[in-house]
Specification:
The complex is a heterodimer of chains A (469) and B (527).
Chain A lengths: L1 H22 L2 H19 L13 H10 L21 E2 L5 E4 L2 E5 L12 H14 L12 E2 H14 L3 E5 L2 H12 L5 E5 L4 H10 L2 E5 L4 H17 L1 H4 L4 E6 L11 H11 L2 E5 L14 H5 L8 E5 L9 E5 L1 H4 L2 H4 L1 H4 L6 H16 L16 E4 L6 E6 L6 H17 L2 E2 L1 E2 L14 E5 L6 H19 L1
Parallel strand pairs in A: 3-14, 6-7, 6-8, 8-9, 9-10
Antiparallel strand pairs in A: 1-2, 2-3, 5-11, 10-11, 12-13, 13-16, 15-16
Helix pairs in contact in A: 4-15, 5-15, 6-7, 8-10, 16-17
Chain B lengths: L1 H9 L15 E4 L3 H26 L27 H5 L11 E2 L6 E8 L8 E12 L14 H13 L14 H14 L3 E5 L2 H12 L5 E5 L4 H10 L2 E5 L4 H14 L11 E6 L1 E2 L4 E2 L2 H10 L3 E5 L14 H5 L8 E5 L9 E5 L1 H10 L1 H5 L5 H15 L6 H23 L5 E2 L4 E5 L3 H13 L2 E2 L1 E3 L10 E5 L6 H18 L8 E2 L17
Parallel strand pairs in B: 4-16, 6-7, 6-8, 8-11, 11-12
Antiparallel strand pairs in B: 1-14, 1-19, 3-4, 5-13, 9-10, 12-13, 15-18, 17-18
Helix pairs in contact in B: 4-13, 5-13, 6-7, 13-14, 14-16, 15-16
Classes of the chains: A alpha/beta (469), B alpha/beta (527).
Chain lengths: 469, 527
């Protein structure tokens, strides 16, 4: 009985099916038919592997491993490579410096305010050494925050008239950690061609889109900004989440000139881009009190989103700092790689920086830098008149970069033998985005007297004449 | 039965044909299932409350405490994404007082801390002005106790400071190469047993600036899963292809090496220019020691190069304090690039790289740090010189040797006692870094605070430095810790462990850490 019922049930389902078949529209049947044929074709077609891996036997693999020869870990460096043989400085690198055994006047160290040898700075560092020892034995998060660090951060913030400051234990790492903390993959950064290597490494670590504009050329920058604006109009949704930044230096290390900050501020508000300012050379040098390029131009410091500087030039210590509004700076305390994953600054160096800052505040130094080497045949001076770090480049290149470097080395050696310590500006030729031409770096400090400046200028004239003619 | 086999696996005495001259006792315990579930539940509750508070802040029911954008820039693209900061606002902020604790004395075995209170649940802190004195310091990296304000090292550093000043104001290649730096580098080379060495001002920067100088496009980097951020950054900046092998897992490493040589570069099939293996001596979050004899055997078999980062192990391991190479009794010339830092065991700051003369000459010319970064400060250099001489015994005393032995004893004692108490401790028996597992988010804050009440300073670590459910407290032992200090600390840890129910151990040990890892940290730039 149940079997009959089941059989009837089955028949009934079959009838329904046949009915549905007859009632279905034609296109539906054709489509289903095509699909079924396609499935049958796929089932019977040849299978192919996604990766073309020829299956090697074990013996073949071992042979490949035997045969493979790697390159040597490092290529050999020729013995006379200009960057290999360092100058050895015996004793402190102060105004009178002993280089390679010879006493010279120092025109090569970035000791702009002469604070390297200052007795008050040294005694502040000594007091700190007696209290804390040398190292901090930990990063800022794990018992590496000392009261000296907090004091230095407060003092710097007060001096620069910003809300907050954050210090790093290494000058290079300051801007190289600050940029990737804010700018990520997909964001856009407009950066000057002559930006220093630390900025380039920060940009590389950030994985953002980099757009270079010609050095100090505001028209070129505006062109790039306008291009970006038209891109944004095509894709407004993406534009709403893409952050934009401009990275410039106050006083450029590679060219010795300043950036046109008032025009940059105008562009900032017109195109809604944030400005990051790198002030390693201009901190302590520009402005009535040494507050940098913002004071020099009289710009409201809140208009600049982030100011980064290192304490290794004017403050004659080690390390760097960033300052700005708390909204911006506080973020680096958890996402600045050089801050979170690295030991904090040794307290004696922080104490030295605090004392140097005190001295800077009490005696604002107005220095008149005069370039005495305007008329040296064969060499031209690159840099503004008030820049303490200038470059002397060859007026005409003598063929290749190698030849130019050799020539400049002879000029430098001539000067060193006669008691003026100079150095060539060193770059990593293969790593720089826009390699500056070879040059001699000349640093003007407050400790140099008029006679010494005159002597240096005349010596350079002599050297240029004897070497280049 | 399983017990003797497990024991043999863990004590690698006869493993790998006698590569190990001493027992290698490394073990990790599996997370108990109930604890894992409760931890996820804990995070779930915190996340819900986080959403609730964000909702209340958005609708102005609750006052918004964090800093905001300028009025003039409100129409700029927002600098931070809201969800990026969710963890920061709602989870990290609750227990923020466990980190960034300000101290005001030398970071030795005992330290003075500035007391700070918060009246608005950790959004802002105020200093009461009181100083909490003599907290037992189990958090600073002071392995050999050279963080001192008196003694030979400090006196020598003071003399150099008065002679040279604090700064240098120039780079190594320009006018910043002092005679002190040359002296230091010769000494470090002698200490490590290599031909030549070079010193840099920052340990982090040593990795991030020199790995790009050694390898580039067309090279392969094989990096351990748990490598430090500086190694990750250096590998990314170099532009080489990066492949990750499981933590301390030699089978995983061998498989990657074989595949790399046999199949060559992806898509083009060209052979790799060189292969660089990046490992650390001691991994500071796990407390594990690298299986160096096996790594060197593999490196020789497959003709690759080894970069060993001894940030935590130099000075802290080995019978004469010369690091993990000394610990295993191997030849330092087998390691191609020996890198380390001076921050931890030498009480100073900075890093070094040691190796063959060709390598160091190349780095002198092409390292980013030599060309663009200021050289080391002279008093710091003097501290390193004095402490290295002390460890080597060249200052005429046996202080160095005594400290190395004291640290080894302290390590064994501390780890044994903690294991006996029933806590889950990760890592190798000889590693002075001792991670104690907490797991649950609330216990992170509670442990830090309870220990501080009892005058012991500890370091607690949570997400993102560790996987989300594996939060831990990490103790760093020091040769300066006396047995009394350790006993006091152990008594308090025992008390707090009972109070917070931290004694999870069921004594089921496994020799290797086995967890899924995240490859996205190594996404490369498309140039």
């Amino acid at each position: 009985m149940a079997a009959v019922a089941a059989g009837v049930g089955q028949q009934w389902v079959l009838v329904e099916m046949v009915q549905a078949f007859y009632e279905a529209p034609a296109y539906h049947l054709i489509l289903e038919g095509i699909l079924i044929l396609w499935i049958i074709r796929l089932l019977f077609s040849k299978t192919y592997k996604l990766q073309e891996r020829s299956d090697l036997t074990l013996k073949e693999k071992e042979e490949l491993i035997e045969e493979w020869q790697p390159e040597p870990l490092v290529p050999p460096v020729p013995k006379d490579h200009p960057a290999l043989n360092y100058n050895i400085v015996s004793g402190p690198p102060t105004h009178i410096i002993t280089v390679n055994g010879k006493e010279c006047i120092n025109f090569a160290s970035f000791n702009f305010l002469g604070l390297l040898n200052n007795e008050k700075v040294k005694s502040a560092a000594q007091a700190s050494l007696k209290k804390y020892g040398v190292g901090t034995c930990g990063p800022r998060g794990f018992y590496g925050t000392f009261d000296v660090h907090l004091e230095l951060e407060e003092r710097l913030a007060k001096f620069m008239r910003t809300e907050e400051a954050i210090i790093y234990s290494y000058g290079f790492a300051t801007i190289a950690s600050a940029i990737p903390a804010y700018s990520k993959r997909g964001d856009i950064v407009f950066v000057d061609e002559a930006a220093c290597f630390a900025i380039q490494k920060g940009l590389q670590a950030s994985r953002s889109n980099i757009k270079l504009f010609k050095h100090n050329d505001m028209a070129d920058l505006e062109r790039l900004l306008k291009e970006q604006e038209s891109e944004d109009q095509k894709n407004p949704r993406k534009a709403r989440v893409t952050r934009r930044f401009i990275v410039v230096e106050g006083l450029y290390m590679n060219t010795g000139d300043i950036c046109p900050l008032p025009e940059l501020i105008k562009l900032k508000y017109k195109y809604k881009v944030r400005i990051f300012l790198e002030e390693s050379l201009s901190f302590g040098v520009l402005g009535a009190h040494g507050r940098g390029i913002t004071e020099h131009f009289g710009i409201n410091i809140d208009d600049i989103d982030l100011i980064s500087a290192n304490m290794e030039n004017s403050l004659a210590s080690i390390g760097g700092f960033c300052c700005g509004r708390s909204f911006i700076i506080d973020h680096q305390r958890l996402s600045g790689q050089g801050y979170c994953f690295s030991a904090s600054l040794p307290p004696l160096l922080a104490a030295a920086a605090i004392e140097a800052l005190n001295i800077m505040e009490d005696n604002p130094v107005i220095r008149t830098m005069t370039i005495k080497c305007q008329s040296i045949s064969g060499l031209k001076v690159v840099g503004e008149s008030f820049s303490p770090a200038l470059h002397l480049q060859l007026e005409e290149s003598w063929g290749s970069r190698e030849n130019d470097v050799k020539l400049l080395k002879r000029v430098v050696d001539y000067c060193m033998n006669s008691g003026i310590a100079l150095t060539q500006a060193r770059y990593l030729e293969k790593e720089e985005k826009c390699l500056p031409p070879p040059s001699i770096r000349v640093v003007i400090t407050v400790e140099q007297t008029e006679q010494e400046l005159d002597r240096a200028a005349s010596l350079l004239k002599e050297a240029a004449q004897s070497v280049l003619n | 039965s399983t017990k003797p086999d497990r024991l043999q696996e863990i004590n690698h005495i006869v493993h790998n044909g006698g590569l190990y001259k001493r027992p290698f006792n490394e073990a990790f315990e599996e997370t108990p299932m109930l604890v894992a579930v409760l931890t996820y539940v804990g995070y779930g509750v915190l996340t819900l409350f986080g959403y609730l508070r964000d909702f209340m802040r958005q609708w102005k029911i609750e006052k918004c405490q964090n800093a905001t954008e300028r009025e003039e820039q409100k129409d700029f693209v927002p600098l931070y994404q809201d969800f990026e900061n969710f963890y920061n606002r709602n989870l990290y902020m609750r227990i923020r007082d466990s980190w960034n604790r300000p101290i005001c004395s030398v970071p030795g075995a005992k330290v003075d801390m500035m007391e700070r209170v918060s009246h608005d649940y950790n959004w802002t802190f105020t200093y009461t002005g009181r100083v909490i004195k003599d907290i037992i310091n189990m958090g600073s990296y002071n392995y050999l106790g050279f963080a001192q304000k008196t003694g030979a090292c400090q006196e020598a550093a003071a003399k150099v400071l008065s002679q040279y000043g604090a700064g240098v104001c120039s780079t190594r290649q320009e006018m910043g190469n002092l005679d002190k730096h040359e002296e230091l580098e010769k000494l470090v080379a002698r200490f490590l047993g290599v031909e030549s060495a070079m010193a840099y001002g920052m340990g982090f920067a040593t990795n991030s600036m020199n790995i790009p100088a050694l390898v580039g496009k067309g090279c392969l980097i094989l990096s351990d899963e748990l490598n430090h951020a500086s190694l990750v950054l250096g590998a990314r900046l170099s532009g080489a292809t990066i492949r990750i092998f499981k933590h301390n897992n030699m089978q995983s490493l061998e498989k990657l090496l074989k595949d790399a040589i046999v199949h060559g570069q992806p898509r083009t099939r060209r052979p790799w220019k060189k292969i660089l293996i990046l490992v650390e001596g001691i991994y500071s979050m796990e407390g594990s020691i690298v299986r160096l004899p096996e790594v060197i055997a593999l490196k020789k078999k497959y003709k690759s190069y080894l970069y060993l980062d001894e940030a935590h192990s130099i000075g802290a391991l080995g019978p004469s304090g010369r690091g993990v190479v000394d610990y295993f009794g191997l030849n330092p010339e087998d390691v191609d690039v020996m890198m380390g830092t001076f921050t931890k065991s030498f009480g100073a700051a900075g890093g070094y790289i040691g190796g063959k003369k060709e390598l160091i000459d190349y780095l002198r010319t092409y390292s980013h740090s030599a060309a663009y970064a200021t050289s080391m400060s002279p008093p710091v250099v003097e501290q390193i010189i004095t402490s290295v001489k002390c460890i080597m015994g060249e200052d005429g005393t046996t202080i160095g040797r005594a400290r190395v032995q004291q640290l080894a004893e302290n390590t064994r004692y501390f780890r044994r006692r903690l294991k006996e108490m029933g806590f889950i401790i990760y890592g190798n028996e000889d590693s002075p870094v001792v991670p104690l597992m907490l797991y649950m988010p609330a216990k992170i804050g509670a442990f830090g605070r309870e220990m501080l009440k009892r005058n012991i300073g500890v370091v607690v670590v949570g997400f993102p430095a560790t996987p989300i459910i594996e939060s831990r407290a990490r103790f760093c032992l020091s040769a300066a810790h006396t047995k009394e200090m350790l006993d006091t600390a152990l008594k308090e840890i025992n008390e707090v462990g009972d109070l917070l129910q931290l004694k999870y151990s069921r004594r089921r040990l496994v020799p290797l850490l086995d967890r899924p890892f995240d490859e996205t940290t190594y996404e490369e730039t498309e140039d």
